[in-house]
Amino acid sequence: MKILHNPRCSKSREALKLLEEKGVKPEVIKYMDDHLSLSDLKNIIDLLRIKPVQLVRTKESFWKENFAGKNLSDDEIVQAMIDFPQLMERPIVIEGDRAIIGRPTEKVIELLP
Question: Which CATH architecture has domain 2-111?
Fold first, then answer.
Protein backbone atom coordinates (compact mmCIF):
# COMPACT_ATOMS: atom_id res chain seq x y z
CA MET A 1 0.00 0.00 0.00
CA LYS A 2 1.15 3.52 -0.81
CA ILE A 3 -0.02 6.90 0.39
CA LEU A 4 0.65 10.15 -1.42
CA HIS A 5 1.20 12.23 1.67
CA ASN A 6 1.55 15.90 2.49
CA PRO A 7 2.66 16.17 6.13
CA ARG A 8 1.33 19.74 6.27
CA CYS A 9 -2.22 18.56 5.48
CA SER A 10 -4.33 17.49 8.46
CA LYS A 11 -6.43 15.08 6.36
CA SER A 12 -3.28 13.45 5.03
CA ARG A 13 -1.89 13.06 8.55
CA GLU A 14 -5.21 11.62 9.73
CA ALA A 15 -5.29 9.08 6.89
CA LEU A 16 -1.74 7.93 7.57
CA LYS A 17 -2.51 7.60 11.29
CA LEU A 18 -5.68 5.61 10.54
CA LEU A 19 -3.79 3.19 8.29
CA GLU A 20 -1.10 2.73 10.93
CA GLU A 21 -3.75 2.12 13.61
CA LYS A 22 -5.16 -0.63 11.37
CA GLY A 23 -1.73 -2.27 11.27
CA VAL A 24 -0.78 -1.05 7.80
CA LYS A 25 2.65 0.44 7.19
CA PRO A 26 2.22 2.09 3.80
CA GLU A 27 5.01 3.34 1.60
CA VAL A 28 4.86 7.10 2.16
CA ILE A 29 5.35 9.21 -0.96
CA LYS A 30 5.92 12.86 -0.10
CA TYR A 31 4.78 14.18 -3.47
CA MET A 32 5.34 17.81 -2.48
CA ASP A 33 9.08 17.12 -2.10
CA ASP A 34 9.51 14.62 -4.94
CA HIS A 35 7.17 15.63 -7.74
CA LEU A 36 5.37 12.85 -9.54
CA SER A 37 6.31 11.99 -13.10
CA LEU A 38 3.81 12.45 -15.91
CA SER A 39 3.35 8.69 -16.28
CA ASP A 40 2.93 8.18 -12.51
CA LEU A 41 0.26 10.87 -12.22
CA LYS A 42 -1.61 9.60 -15.29
CA ASN A 43 -1.51 6.08 -13.83
CA ILE A 44 -2.90 7.34 -10.51
CA ILE A 45 -5.72 9.15 -12.31
CA ASP A 46 -6.50 5.92 -14.18
CA LEU A 47 -6.52 3.95 -10.90
CA LEU A 48 -8.86 6.53 -9.38
CA ARG A 49 -11.11 6.19 -12.46
CA ILE A 50 -11.65 9.94 -12.64
CA LYS A 51 -10.96 12.80 -15.01
CA PRO A 52 -7.87 14.90 -14.20
CA VAL A 53 -9.93 17.93 -13.19
CA GLN A 54 -11.60 15.82 -10.48
CA LEU A 55 -8.21 15.52 -8.76
CA VAL A 56 -7.71 19.29 -8.69
CA ARG A 57 -8.35 21.33 -5.57
CA THR A 58 -10.41 23.86 -7.51
CA LYS A 59 -11.07 25.96 -4.40
CA GLU A 60 -7.33 26.51 -3.94
CA SER A 61 -6.54 30.21 -4.49
CA PHE A 62 -3.59 29.30 -6.73
CA TRP A 63 -5.94 27.39 -9.04
CA LYS A 64 -8.45 30.24 -9.10
CA GLU A 65 -5.78 32.85 -9.84
CA ASN A 66 -3.93 30.92 -12.54
CA PHE A 67 -6.18 28.32 -14.15
CA ALA A 68 -9.89 28.80 -13.36
CA GLY A 69 -12.02 29.74 -16.33
CA LYS A 70 -9.44 28.59 -18.88
CA ASN A 71 -10.38 25.86 -21.32
CA LEU A 72 -7.60 23.43 -20.36
CA SER A 73 -7.12 20.00 -21.89
CA ASP A 74 -6.71 16.95 -19.66
CA ASP A 75 -2.98 16.95 -20.46
CA GLU A 76 -2.66 20.61 -19.45
CA ILE A 77 -4.44 19.91 -16.16
CA VAL A 78 -2.15 16.95 -15.45
CA GLN A 79 0.90 19.09 -16.21
CA ALA A 80 -0.39 21.82 -13.88
CA MET A 81 -0.60 19.25 -11.05
CA ILE A 82 2.94 18.06 -11.79
CA ASP A 83 4.27 21.62 -11.81
CA PHE A 84 2.18 22.70 -8.80
CA PRO A 85 1.49 19.60 -6.68
CA GLN A 86 -0.36 21.65 -4.07
CA LEU A 87 -3.25 21.59 -6.56
CA MET A 88 -3.82 17.85 -6.04
CA GLU A 89 -6.49 16.50 -3.73
CA ARG A 90 -4.96 14.57 -0.89
CA PRO A 91 -4.32 12.10 0.51
CA ILE A 92 -4.34 9.45 -2.20
CA VAL A 93 -4.02 5.85 -1.11
CA ILE A 94 -3.06 3.15 -3.62
CA GLU A 95 -3.39 -0.60 -3.19
CA GLY A 96 -2.63 -2.76 -6.21
CA ASP A 97 -4.87 -1.70 -9.08
CA ARG A 98 -7.10 0.48 -6.91
CA ALA A 99 -6.74 3.99 -5.55
CA ILE A 100 -8.88 6.32 -3.50
CA ILE A 101 -8.84 9.96 -2.44
CA GLY A 102 -9.01 9.89 1.35
CA ARG A 103 -11.72 12.48 1.83
CA PRO A 104 -13.34 11.89 4.17
CA THR A 105 -10.45 10.18 5.88
CA GLU A 106 -12.45 7.02 6.61
CA LYS A 107 -12.61 6.24 2.87
CA VAL A 108 -9.09 4.80 3.06
CA ILE A 109 -10.53 1.83 4.96
CA GLU A 110 -12.18 0.73 1.69
CA LEU A 111 -8.75 -0.34 0.41
CA LEU A 112 -7.87 -2.50 3.41
CA PRO A 113 -7.89 -6.26 2.85
Answer: 3-Layer(aba) Sandwich (3.40)
